[in-house]
Request: fold
Amino acid sequence: MEIFMSIVSGCLVAAGVYLLLQRQILKIIIGTAILSHAAHLLILTMGKLDRGAPPIIKDGITKYADPLPQALILTSIVISFGVTSYLLVLAYRTYNENRTDNMEQLRGTDNE
Amino acid sequence: MLHLVIFIPFLFALIIPLLRTKLSNIHLGWFVLAVPVLLFTYFISFLEKMIQGEKIHSTLNWIPSLDINFVFVIDGLSMLFSLLITGIGSLVVLYSIFYLNKKENLGHFYFYLLLFMGAMLGVVLSDNIFVLYMFWEFTSISSFLLIGFWFHREKSRYGALKSMLITVFGGLALFASFLLMSITTGSTSIREIILNSEAIINSNYFVLILILFLLGAFTKSAQFPFHTWLPDAMEAPTPVSAYLHSATMVKAGIYLVARFFLVFQGEQLFAIIVSVFGIVTLAWGSFMAVRQTDLKGILAFSTISQLGMIMAMLGFGAGYENKVAIVAAVFHIFNHATFKGSLFMVAGIIDHETGTRDIRRLGGLYTFMPITATLAFFGTFSMAGFPLPVFNGFLSKEMFFKAAILDNVLDISILIPILAVIGSIFTFVYSMILFFKPFTGKENMLDRQPHEAPIGLLVSPAILVSFIIIIGLLPNIISEPILAPAVSAINGEIPLINIHFWHGFTNIPIWMSFTVVVIGTLLFRYRDKWTPFYNVFPGRWSAANVYDYLVNNTFTFAKSVTSFFMTGSIRNYLSIILGFLIGTLAVTIYITDGFAVSYDDLAPITWPVAFTGITMVFASIATIFMKNRIAAILVLGVVGYGLSILFVFFKAPDLALTQLIIETVTVALFLLCFYHLPDLTKTKESLSRKTLNIVISLSAGFIVTIIAIASHSFKKFDAISEYFIETSVSLGGGHNIVNVILVDMRGLDTLFEITVLGIAALAIISMIKLRKKEEVDS
Reply:
């Protein structure tokens, strides 16, 4: 299962990177979102999958799933949400100001 | 005491601004004059000890832990240079008092000049190579400041920059050479390096040490092909040219070669490089000097050629058991300083009194300026090596010819005396031009009536000219106190010097001298016939053009390199970053043989999980091909929801919950912005760009996959999670282990994650709300 999930997250990375290399701002943001999904899945996979019960202490259960990667992912999800929403509003403002969403045209001036 | 002497110029330079404001009605130079005169008398007092072969040492700690200390030693060679620096320094300061107007920025001038004087004394007296290097760069900097003294002139700035770039280039090479020397010998003292010269000669770096060392010496002493900075340095005020660019700084390279002579002595490579470069510089410099039309231009190329001659003599002395060569070199260092210093001063006087230095406009000045003409006569004829006993230049030239005839070495060495004669013929020609053009012939074509210079301007060249005559007549008066100690400091032997004027007709050198005079006179007489020959050579291959080409093309090249990758396109930057990342990872995995697959300890694959995973993959690929932005957003949602389903399967309820909510909010946010966001128009991509994108993304995915599989297969330690599971209730007081970790065990992460969210929220608000006023209106 871990190998399978590694391949899945690899595919997600490939799709995310391909989107990052596009010209349109919206596609780039979608790419970052997919990349963060891939990273979360990878963290979980590296902590070994599907061992024991959910990490909530109950009497009589001795084996739990590893709680540490879960805590890390939880933090990461929230942060990537913050960043994604910020990027989204940034894209909206960029489009409003410059009337273009083509990154090749958004090169700034020579003095920048 | 010796330390004080070297630092006096620096200390005095510091009080110059004070003098300038307090005593502005007296020419500042009168105060400055005291410094070199004082130092000169101080050095003269050591002459007695020099004759007895003593050395004077003095040490002052600076950085003892690195073995870098102010260790100053006076021996014969240092003595010769110290006397030149302070003696000619005094004369130059005296000359500059009458040469420079009080309206000039004298504070700057004398500040730089004193800085230079102190630095030059430091160079010739330092025994520690790093202290020597420090003073060496000080001379470069102060020379840069002096050349650019009239900084409002474009040509002055150009000349200053050029000399700076070339001499500092050589200075850095010298520094590298010094580092290697101190590493191989384990010492920073010149005396100890000379004692351990075997270590340098036998080290693997010997050739490198030698070449870097000579680069430093050749750039400073304007040897071919680094001579090109010296003619442009003529933009400096004439006292500076007389001091730095004839008598002192340009001889620093000569000093260096002489000082390290004992290290490289007997090495064929050293002897060959130094003599060949010296003789080529001699021939080329004198050849080019004839072409010049500016008085100072002629003098600059003549300096180059004379420096080449001295350098060549040091080379002759190194490899060929040629004792007379070193004596001749030392003698000519002294003689050149006298006649070249006086000639620069004469050129300055002509410029001062007529307003031009162009020899095409000058003529017949003898009637107006008889004293100046007389001084020039002695200077130029001494430089030409005219065979009369009153010219010291003839004596050293004769010795040079004697040294140039190298016995029992390679057949090709017959070229050396031939080149020496050719160089001397041209020397003769330009010396004659220098004298006869301005002072004889037609009455001048000048704007104003020239008249004799004030007495103050004439004193300094007159003193130098009297040296020419005295040494020309009685050369042996300086041989015991000055020449012999200097020669013994260079090659370690005490020579018996007895300089004769006349050697008889059986001597080859005398015939060489006659050849020079006869052919030189003929060439000078019929110069109109052959000087058009110079126009055959295009200026394109001159060293000055090579320098310009290099400097300009460095900028163009740097610009083109920068604009090659700094395109402003984010995609290109990303491609470079990702390409580099993938490349280094792939190479590392390949080199360390890091890939491995272990099938132990894997969870079994279940169908629902596999189905969810495959769906996510397809959905993520589908986002690439979506033409419709709402569809793209919804398909992205499929990936997110798929992930939360996976979290459910993998026993992570908190994650599933959060992912579900966040995905919903994100999709909602996307849809909220939807109206304002641009349409997904179809963009045309070139096939190569598309291929590149596919290659980069596929290899990124591939690398991530194999790293994940490899690292999963290499578990070295157990997880620390057992601790969290055990202590969740007892220490944290909670049953939900993930939550206990988040707020209890690792609460700091959570604090800052909250901060991140807060900042993102504030940033979004400010981005939407805060705009410039006019934007809101429009």
In short: Chain A has one domain: 1-104. Chain A is about 65% helix and 0% strand.
